[in-house]
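Listing S7. Sequence submitted for prediction.
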Amino acid sequence: MEKEKTRFFSAVNIAYMAVLLALVIVLQVFGGYFKIGATSLSFVLVPIVLSGMLLGVMPALVLGVVFGLVVIFDALGGMDPFTLYLLNEQPVITVLLCIVKGGAAGAVSALAFKLISKKNKYVAVFVASAAAPIINTLIFVLGALCISGTISDFLNGAGIDVTQMNPFYIVLVICVGINFFVELAINLICAPALYTVNKVISKQIKVKNK
C-alpha cells in the first residue's frame, strides 16, 4: 500500500495532475466562449475523463469536485446568472449539487474505465467518455427536480412563462435540452484521441515510476 501511495505521488503523476487541473479550470471559465449558435460547447469533462484513465478514480473525483467549485465561483463572479440565483435561493442544495455531480461524473467514469479496460481498453475509453456527461446530467436532473419551484421562479423572472409546465419538462427540456447531447457528442468524438493519449502517456508513466 505504501509503495502504491509513493508511486501515485511521484513527480510525473503530480505534473500530469497539475496540467489536467489547469485544463479543467480554463475550460470551465472560458467554456462559454465556444459556441454553435446559442449552444455552448463544453469540453471540461474531457480532462476529467482523461485523469481517470491515466491516474485513477481518486484524481478523477478530485478534478470533478474542482469542476463543481469553479462553477460556483463563476456564478459568484457574475458569469452564470442561473446558478447565482440558485445559490441565493437554495445555497446548500446548489453547492452540494455542483460538487456531487462533478465528483461523481469523474469517479464513475474512472471506475468504468478501470473495470472495462481489463477486457477491452478501446471500448473502456468510449464507455468512460459517455459515463461522465450522463452521470453529470443525471445528478443535475435529480437535484433540479428537488428545487424545481426555484428554477421555475428564475425562468418566469427571465421572461419564460413556465407556470403551466410540468417540472420534468422544465428540467429536461428547458434546463438540460440540447446541452446534454452536445456534451455527450464532444466526449465521444474525443474518445479516440483520448485512447491514443492514454496509451502513450501510460507507457511513459510506467517507465518513469519504475
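Caption to Listing S7: primary sequence and predicted C-alpha cells for the chain studied. The chain has nine helices and two strands. The radius of gyration is 18 Å.
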